From TrEMBL:
Domain EF-hand: residue ranges: 34-69, 121-156
Native source species: Lingula anatina (Brachiopod)
Coiled-coil spans in chain: none
PROSITE patterns named in the record: EF_HAND_1, EF_HAND_2
Record-linked SMART domains: EFh
This protein's UniProt keywords: Calcium, Signal
Record's protein name: Uncharacterized protein LOC106172793
InterPro entries: EF-hand-dom_pair, EF_Hand_1_Ca_BS, EF_hand_dom
Origin: domain of life: Eukaryota
Length: 203
């Protein structure tokens, strides 16, 4: 191998390393229509009063209240911390002039902007979400534990088929990998996945 080939290879490896650790968003104006339907489903979950605007109160306070209905208080506070942080990172940030109320169009606009967050940080959020609902700390979500996650997301659909779609190895529990991969696909994949029911459904 010539030194030029070697340098090219090293550069390629370096670029791939950067890609794998840093590209979370590179979609400015390029969300697929399918991906936008996923964001809309989440938006509608959070927009409890259905006025077409998601406020910080709905995003943080009302979701925390729902969490308090189904989780011990310290776990509900963990949810509160995660969602307060998520609102600052993805919604009310420098790109939206720190606004605290969003129409759906506002939400898409700000979510399509590249923000400095790594894929590791993103998957850490999903792991923390998993841990918050793993009430008995056994590293698995039973259908009962997962149903609490769905409750916070105002799911109205039958739980078993949703659980079955996430339980990829069909062993009757969700391990962290099953949950985290489904949650990350929901937020970051442009195309359909059978696991996209992870945050439940509303009819
Ligand atoms: Ca568990
Ligand atoms: Ca499983």
């Amino acid at each position: 191998m010539s030194s030029i080939q070697l340098i090219s290879l090293l550069l390629l490896v370096a670029v791939q390393a950067v890609n794998s650790s840093s590209i979370v968003k590179n979609y400015k104006g390029k969300f697929t229509s399918y991906r936008i339907t996923k964001f809309k489903a989440f938006f509608d979950i959070i927009d409890v009063d259905e006025d077409g605007v998601v406020t910080e109160k709905e995003f943080v306070d009302l979701t925390t209240k729902r969490a308090q209905n189904v989780l011990p208080s310290w776990r509900a506070m963990a949810w509160n911390g995660m969602f307060s942080n998520a609102f600052r990172v993805w919604w009310s940030n420098e790109y939206s002039n720190n606004k605290t109320a969003f129409t759906f169009e506002d939400m898409i606009r700000v979510h399509e902007i590249d923000i400095p967050i790594t894929t590791e940080e993103v998957s850490q959020i999903s792991w923390n979400m998993f841990g918050t609902f793993d009430i008995d700390c056994d590293g698995k979500l039973t259908i009962d534990e997962y149903s609490k996650f769905l409750f916070v997301h105002r799911n109205t659909a039958e739980i078993q088929p949703i659980f079955g779609a996430i339980d990829q190895n069909a062993n009757g529990v969700l391990d962290a990998e099953e949950f985290v991969s489904a949650y990350d696909l929901y937020w970051y994949r442009q195309e359909f996945s059978t696991t996209d029911v992870i945050i439940g459904k509303r009819y």
